[in-house]
Amino acid sequence: MEKIIKILENKIKKSFSKEGSGHDIYHLRRVLNSALQLQKKEGGDKLVIAIAAFLHDLHRIIERDTGKFCAPKESLPKVRELLKDLKLSVAQKDKILHCIAYHEEYGFSKKGKTVSDIETLIIQDADNLDAMGAIGIGRTFSFSGAHSISMWIPEKPFKRRYFDENKKDISTIHHFHSKLLKLKENMNTKTGKAVAKQRHEFMERFLKEFFSEWRGEK
Fold this sequence. Notes:
By secondary structure, this protein is mainly alpha-helical. The chain has helices at 2-16, 25-42, 46-55, 58-66, 76-83, 90-101, 118-129, 133-146, 172-178, 190-214.
């Protein structure tokens, strides 16, 4: 498995080298590590989970290079090309593609969740865990900086749904309320839920401190 991941990293590292919105090669490595920790306790095909975790954000690079929104499913041709020469079964390759295609499903979106296979559920959990806690806070502000999003706009109301957001109409703190604070209830696995609880509580403490400092109370 380590050899395959190294081969893949050599192929994609350059593409991710200029990624500054929190979806860089280090994000891929963290999601890979989290996914493997979840797999130890939750099961599933370890190799499928590892590869899918490491390749799950290729659509972000396409989006950056084209300047247009790119759904995970649109990255599958590139994923297929990367998998072409690897010694994997057809079934494993299909599972990897499936995991990547559906890894951005959210229970609080209009469509909700449609998948139930453990491999995809683990990829969802691992990716969402990296959007929470101290790392999640750091990535959120990196994303905002890359897209010229304000830190906080008190005059703007909070949106009820994440997908109602418009980058021109929100702030980083709005994003916490529309998405990040909802991730704890969006977790799939028992193991993921336990980790998410801790990271969620850290984000709540951060926001409490943020608003206290904003009001000049400290």
